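Hi all, posting the design record for the shared folder.

TITLE: backbone redesign
STEP: 1 of 1
STRUCTURE INPUT:
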C-alpha cells in the first residue's frame, strides 16, 4: 500500500511538473473548466429560475443537486478521467502493452497519471453552489452533516469511476464500443438534469441499481437536506461496494482477453 501511494504521488508530481513547463496549458485548464462551469450554471439558472419546485423537490434542493453533480463531475476530471478516458483507444492501438510491462498495476497508473489540477476551481465553485442551495433550502449545515455529505460525494465519485472502468473495459471483448460511449454521455446528461428521486417504476430500477447514475447527486442532496432514510443510504453504499467489486473483476477479466497489437 505504501509503495502504491508513493507511486501515485510521483505520478502527480510528474504531471504537475509537465504542466508548469507549459504554463499556457496549465492556465488553459483553469479557464476551460471555469467556462464549463459558467455555462452549466447559466443553463440551469434559465431552466429553474421560474419554478418553485420540481416534484417534491424545492428550488433550494435543486440548486444543491446541481452543485453536487457538478462537484462529482469536477472530482472525476480532477482525479482520474483524463487518465482512463482513452482506455478503448489504448486497447485498439496496442498502447496498453506499455502499461502491462511495468512493475505496477496498469489500472493504478492509468487512473492517476493524468491528474488535472485545472479542475480545482470547478470543485471550489461547486461547493459554493451547494452552500447557496443549502441557504435557499434553509438547511443548517452542521459539521457532522457537512462531513457526511462530503463522504457521500466522494463515494459517488468512486461509483462514477466504477462505471467508467466497466464501460471502458468492454473493448477488451468487442471490436469497438463507440456506441456505448455515446450512450454513456446521453445517460449522464439526463441524470445531470433530472433528480433520481423523480424516477418511478422501471426507470427507478434502471438508474438506481443497473446504471446507477441516478443516485450520484440525488443521495448526497437528500442527505444534506435530511430527506433520505438510513435504509436509502445503506442501499447506496452497498450499490457502490457491488459496482466497485464488479469493476475490478471485469477489468481483470478484460485483461485476460487482451490481444496485444504485437501478438
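Okay, here is what came back for every position:
SEQUENCE:
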Amino acid at each position: 500500500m505504501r509503495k502504491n501511494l508513493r507511486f501515485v504521488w510521483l505520478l502527480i508530481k510528474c504531471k504537475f511538473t509537465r504542466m508548469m513547463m507549459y504554463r499556457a496549458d496549465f492556465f488553459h485548464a483553469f479557464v476551460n473548466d471555469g467556462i464549463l462551469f459558467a455555462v452549466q450554471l447559466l443553463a440551469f439558472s434559465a431552466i429553474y429560475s421560474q419554478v418553485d419546485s420540481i416534484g417534491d423537490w424545492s428550488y433550494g434542493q435543486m440548486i444543491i443537486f446541481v452543485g453536487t453533480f457538478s462537484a462529482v463531475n469536477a472530482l472525476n476530471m480532477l482525479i482520474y478521467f483524463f487518465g482512463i478516458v482513452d482506455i478503448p483507444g489504448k486497447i485498439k492501438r496496442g498502447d496498453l502493452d506499455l502499461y502491462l510491462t511495468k512493475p505496477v498495476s496498469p489500472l493504478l497508473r492509468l487512473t492517476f497519471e493524468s491528474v488535472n489540477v485545472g479542475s480545482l476551481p470547478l470543485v471550489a465553485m461547486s461547493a459554493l453552489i451547494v452552500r447557496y442551495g443549502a441557504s435557499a433550502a434553509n438547511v443548517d449545515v452542521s459539521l457532522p452533516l457537512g462531513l457526511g455529505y462530503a463522504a457521500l460525494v466522494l463515494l459517488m465519485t468512486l461509483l462514477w469511476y466504477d462505471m467508467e472502468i466497466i464501460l471502458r473495459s468492454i473493448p477488451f471483448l468487442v471490436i469497438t464500443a463507440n456506441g456505448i460511449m455515446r450512450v454513456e454521455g446521453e445517460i449522464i446528461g439526463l441524470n445531470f438534469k433530472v433528480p433520481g428521486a423523480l424516477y418511478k417504476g422501471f426507470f427507478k430500477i434502471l438508474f438506481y441499481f443497473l446504471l446507477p447514475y441516478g443516485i450520484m447527486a440525488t443521495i448526497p442532496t437528500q442527505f444534506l437536506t435530511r430527506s433520505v432514510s438510513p435504509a436509502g443510504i445503506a442501499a447506496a453504499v452497498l450499490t457502490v461496494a457491488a459496482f466497485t467489486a464488479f469493476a475490478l473483476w471485469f477489468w481483470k477479466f478484460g485483461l485476460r482477453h487482451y490481444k496485444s497489437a504485437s501478438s
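COMMENT: The chain has a mean pLDDT of 83.
Let me know if anyone wants the other runs.
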